[in-house]
Amino acid sequence: MVEDTQDEFITYNKIYCRGHQERFGLIRDVMRTEISLRLTRYTADLGESLREHL
């Protein structure tokens, strides 16, 4: 997977696999939301783990 181009709101990437090429775009707001959700989940998991060990 390699970064192809970047538009104002969309990041385009190319995937190369077994001789095939596919291009897809990711919307910035969707990526930002997904990152925020995952960071929140990881932080909660870390906090729970720390509480168990203390």
Shape: elongated
What is the count of structural domains? 1
Low-confidence stretches: none
The percentage of residues in β strands lies in: 35-45%
Global mean pLDDT: 91
Arrangement of strands in the largest sheet: 1-2-3
Order of helices and strands: EEEH
Number of helices: 1
What is the gyration radius calculated from CA atoms? 17 Å
Helix-and-strand structural type: alpha+beta
| First and last CA, distance | 42 Å
Helix percent reads 40-55%
Total number of beta strands: 3
User: Which sheet architecture does the biggest sheet show?
Assistant: 3 strands, antiparallel
Write the layout of secondary structure elements.
Layout: E1 2-6, E2 10-17, E3 20-27, H1 28-53
Can you offer a commentary on this structure?
The chain is built from 1 helix and 3 strands. The chain has 54 residues and is an alpha+beta fold. It has one domain. Strands 1-2-3 form a 3-stranded antiparallel sheet. The longest helix is centred in the last third of the chain and has 26 residues, at 28-53. The mean pLDDT is 91. It is elongated. A hairpin with a 3-residue loop joins strand 1 and strand 2 (10-17). It has one helix spanning 28-53; strands at 2-6, 10-17, 20-27.
